[in-house]
Write a structure and sequence with these properties.
Layout lengths: L4 H23 L3 H17 L12 H9 L1 H14 L4 H28 L1
Helix pairs in contact: 1-2, 1-4, 1-5, 4-5
């Protein structure tokens, strides 16, 4: 059984964000704080992304952020993979974000876990 590139990209991005939330959960003092602390950082990434609105329709000051953040790049690469469009530009940038998030948040989460 082979994994399709679209599924692989979504799974990889999910794996990266798991480490972000694991770090937040380890640092938070209680469950309510962890829930709020997990929601606040992800909210701008979701709502200021290309998931719902095209970048061209966003205000100029928001376009730079929306065009270069991990959620937009992942969504755009999955769309390009699904539609058969040009993938390379989005895929390598999304892959870089994924690797950086796993490396930074993963190592920090493991360090915080070992310390506790």
């Amino acid at each position: 059984m082979s994994v399709k590139p679209t599924k692989a990209m979504v799974l990889a991005a999910g794996f990266a964000f798991i480490w972000v939330f694991a770090l937040i959960g380890l640092v938070a003092k209680d469950t309510e704080t962890a829930q709020l602390a997990g929601f606040l950082p992800i909210m701008p990434f979701i709502f200021a992304s290309t998931v719902f609105v095209r970048v061209e329709n966003m205000p100029g000051w928001l376009q730079l952020f929306a065009r270069n953040q991990p959620v937009s790049l992942t969504v755009n690469s999955v769309r390009a993979l699904s539609e058969g469009g040009p993938v390379a530009g989005y895929a390598w940038q999304a892959a870089v974000w994924i690797v950086v998030l796993v490396a930074v948040c993963g190592s920090m989460a493991v360090a915080v876990y070992k310390r506790s």
